[in-house]
Amino acid sequence: MLLTPPLDAPVLPGITRAAVIELAVRQDIPVREERLTLREVVDADEVFLTNSMIELIPVVRLGREPIGNEKPGDITRQLALAYGELIAEECGDG
Question: Higher confidence at residue 60 or residue 9?
Fold first, then answer.
């Protein structure tokens, strides 16, 4: 399951975010928008951020708190790969 804050939360409605959500849906990864507490983020199995410049970057620690096993998780890797393929296709390199 991919959880993401809703657009009425303090989150930018970025094109990378939208693309990653679309890729998740295409890969049968359930997506749900909901407000998350800091504790829920820290307790997550994996966390990543999206940005047009960095694309999709895993978050393995939040301050001194480890997230999951402190390594990029399967969903993060799967979506990062799919996003890279999408960019290659869109740029004519795929």
Answer: 60
